[in-house]
Amino acid sequence: MAEEIRGLNIKFDADFSEFKKGIKSAEKDIGSTQRQLKTLQESLKLKWDSKKFQQAQAQAQQAIEATTKKSDLLRERLSAMEKAGVTDKTRDEYNWLTEELNRTELASQRLHSQLEDLNQIRLDNLTAGLDRASKG
Q1: Is 121 in contact with 41 (CB distance < 8 Å)?
Q2: Which alpha helices (DSSP H) does 1-136 contain, by range?
Q3: Lowest-pLDDT range, 11-15, 21-25, 99-103?
Q4: How confident is the model at residue 67 (pLDDT cuts 50, 70, 90)?
Q5: Which of 59, 57, 72, 61 is nearest to 32 (CA)?
Q6: Taking the C-alpha atoms of 22, 55, 43 and 108 in order, what is their torsion angle to the nearest 10 degrees?
Q7: Contact, 78 vs 1, CB < 8 A?
């Protein structure tokens, strides 16, 4: 079984090192998307541009979807390990997966917060536009 995160295939049934490499690669991809989102968000704070806003929303959605897929993959792998039984031999793998899942869930929460901040920037811009229109 293979799962895809933004064009990257991660073999679920592969050995752990291959799975870990796939997760790390997906993480780099998600990080790149997050950096682009942050740049667009900062730009929008300085000067409103509806095109940049749409790009930022798309980046946020893309990062949220990829992070959700990554979380799902980690949960599946953890579930499979729990069903098989965690042994001394697989304890390190289990701990790494648990930590990675926690980090991924935190990243997802941050992305949702960034999306809310992005929407707040839009509302602030609309409010400022209404204020200017009412004063004019």
Answers
A1: yes
A2: 16-46, 50-84, 91-135
A3: 11-15
A4: very high
A5: 59
A6: -40
A7: no
